[in-house]
Amino acid sequence: MTGSRAGEGPGLLVARGLQKSFGDVTVFDALDLQVAAGQTLALLGPSGCGKSTLLRVLAGFEPFDAGTVTLDGRPVEGPSPERGMVAQAGTLFPWLTVRENVGFGPRDRGTHDVDRMVADLLAMTGLADFADALPRHLSGGMRQRASLAQVLANQPPVLLLDEPFGALDAQTRLRMHGWVRGVLAERPTSTVLVTHDVDEALLLGDRLGLLSPRPCRVVSERELPFGADRGRDTLSEPDFVSLKATVLDEVMTA
Amino acid sequence: MRASTGRSDDEAQSELTDDAAAQLAAVSGVITHPATARSGRRRRRRLLGLVAPLVLLAGWQMAWSLDWRPKTILPSPHQVLSAADAFFFGHNSVTLSGIVPYKGAAWLHISASLERCITTWVLAVVVGLVLGLGLGLSRWVADVLEPMTNALRAVPLFAWLPLAAVQFGIGEPPARTLIFIGALWPVVVATTDSVARVPRAYVETARMLGTPRARLWRRVYLPSALPEIITGLRLSLTLAWTCVIVGELLGVTRGIGAMMIAAREAGATEQIIVGVILFALIGYAGDRLLRMLARPLVRWSDA
Q1: Number of alpha carbons in the 13 Å side-chain half-sphere of residue A179
Q2: Whole-model pTM?
Q3: Is A2-82+158-253 assigned to CATH 3.40.190.10?
Q4: Residue A124 phi, psi (nearest 5)
Q5: What integer pLDDT is reported at residue A233 of this predicted model?
Q6: Domain B106-301 is of which CATH architecture?
Q7: Residues in chain A closer than 8 A to B3 (CB atoms)
Q8: Where are the domains of chain A?
Q9: How large is the ipTM?
Q10: Model confidence band, residue B232 (pLDDT cutoffs 50, 70, 90)
Q11: Could you tell me the residue ranges of all domains in chain B?
C-alpha cells in the first residue's frame, strides 16, 4: 500500500546537506531527508537530538546555516500554508471559537466557500457540536483534532507533526492514531511525523527513519510493511512485535 | 481481539461520543446546583461591602452630633442629603452665564463632566492604541519614539497644568489637555507591553496558516493582547475621571468639579460633599460598566 499512495501529485519534500547550529552547539551537519508525495515518514529519535528543530526548519520557522530544503523543486523560504505544522501544544488561538480557528487560514487567504469547507472539516473531526466552543472547553484529544482540522483547511501538500499526541493519555493517543490514519488516507498528504513513541511511529509511518544524537542525522531508514488497516490489534501482531524490538534496540544503541 | 480490519474508524468514532458526552455539559453550562450556591455567596459578599460605608456614615453622624468639628465646617449627613435633593430635583433659577448654579443643576454638571471625560478619553484611547501598537510591534518606531515617550511619561501629571494654562488660557482646552495626557499613558503602556509579549507561537501559526504580515496586528497581536489592554483602558478611564476635577479647576463653569469649586467659595460644604459622592459613584459605575462591556471580548482568558 505504501507504493500505491506515494509518488503521485505534489508534495515531494527534500532536504539536502542541512547544517544548523545554535552558537557552539551543532544541531545538524549534513542532514539529508526525503519524503515522497503522499508518503508518511516517521522519525524516531532520542530527546534533545534536534527533532523539533528539524521540523521547525522544514516549516520555515527556523533559518538554517547551509544546505537546501525544497518542496517540489522550489526552495522553502519562511512559513507557508503549503507546509502545515502541528506540535504538542496545538495551534489553536484561544480567543477564537473552534469554527473560527478552523476557518482561520482559508479566511485570511481569501478562499471561497470557507463556511462549507469548515463545516466539512468539523464533521470529519467530530467537532460539529463544539463549533462555537472556545478551545479551553475542549479535551486534549479534541484540541489536537481541531488543530489538525485548522491546518488541513489550507489543504497543504505537506504536513509536519511534532509529537502531536505527546500530551495525550495512552487511550486517547491510540484513538488519535486511528483517526489520523483515516484522515491521511482520505487526503494523501506528505507527512513528517517526529515522535519518541515507537508504537506511534510504526502505526502511522509508511517509512521509518531513526535519528542519531547531535549532530542529528537520519541514520537508518526502512519501509514499514504494515497495511493500511493498522489499528490497535496490529500492536500485538508478531511482525509488529519483532520489528518494534529491533527498532527499540537500534534506538537504544544509537 | 477481533480482526483488525476497520477498527481504527470505530475507535475514532467512539472517542467522539465519549468526548461529546463529557464536554457538552461543560460548554452549555448546565450545572444547576453550584449556581444557586454561588448566588447566595455573592449576595452575602455584597452585603459585607455595605458594612464599611455604614460605619463611616455612623461615625460622621456622631462627629456632627457631638460637635467634634464646628457645624459650619462639617454638615450632617441629612444636610448633605437635602443638598443633593435640591441639586437633583430643585428648580434652577440661575440664568446668568458665568455663575455656577446648584439648584436643579445636577444633570447640567454631571453631563458636562461626563462629556468632557468620555470624549477626551476615547480620543486618548485611539491615540494610545495606535502609539502602543507602533511601539510594541515596530523596532523602528520604538527606537525613534520610546526614549521620548518614557521621558514624557515621567512628568507628574499635574506638572502639565501650568503649561496648559499658559498655552490655552482657562476653560475647556487646558481641562481636556490634562484629561487627555492622564488617560493616554496607561493605554500606551498596556498596549506596548502586552503586544510585545504575545507568544511567538501564535505569530508563527498565523504565518503558517497564511495570514499576511500586514494583517498580523489585527488577527493575532490585538486579540491576544486584549485582556491586558482592557486592564489598561480601565486604569486610563479612572485616571481620566481623576483629571476631570483638576481640569475643572481651570475656569469652566459647568461640571461637577466646577460646582465644587464654586461651593467652596460660597462656603457650602454640604454641596462639596455631594460632589465628592458623585465622583465616587460615577467613577465606580463607569469602571463596572467598562468591565461589563469588555467581558465578552476577554471571556477566553478568564481564569
Answers
A1: 25
A2: 0.79
A3: no
A4: -65, -35
A5: 77
A6: Orthogonal Bundle (1.10)
A7: 233
A8: 2-82+158-253, 89-155
A9: 0.87
A10: very high
A11: 106-301
